[in-house]
Amino acid sequence: MIFIKILKFRLKYLVLLPCLTSCLFVSAQEQNRINKAEEHWVDSVYSALTTQQRIGQLFMLRANSETDSAEIHKLSRLIRDYNIGGLCFFKGGPLRQA
Asked: Disulfide-capable partner of 56 in 10, 41, 82, 95 (CB 3.0 to 4.6 Å)?
C-alpha cells in the first residue's frame, strides 16, 4: 500500500517536473512556510507508526518485474506484513514495474 502511494507520488512529480521548476521563484518566506508544513506532515506520519513499522521502513527489497506472480505475491506479503520502506528494481522496464 505504501509502495503504491510512493510510486504514484513519484510519477506525479516526474510528469509535473516542468511545472515544479517555477518553485525556484518562490520567496524565501513562502518556502519556509512550505518546509514547515512538510515537516509537520512527516512528523505526524512518523509519530503514528509503531516501532515495528518504523523498523520496516529502514529496509528495501530487491525486486524484479520480470519474475513470475509467485515472486510478486511474496514481495507483496513482505511489504504488507513488515511495512517495508522501499523496493529496488534490477530488471524490467518502468511500465512493467509501475
From this structure: 82
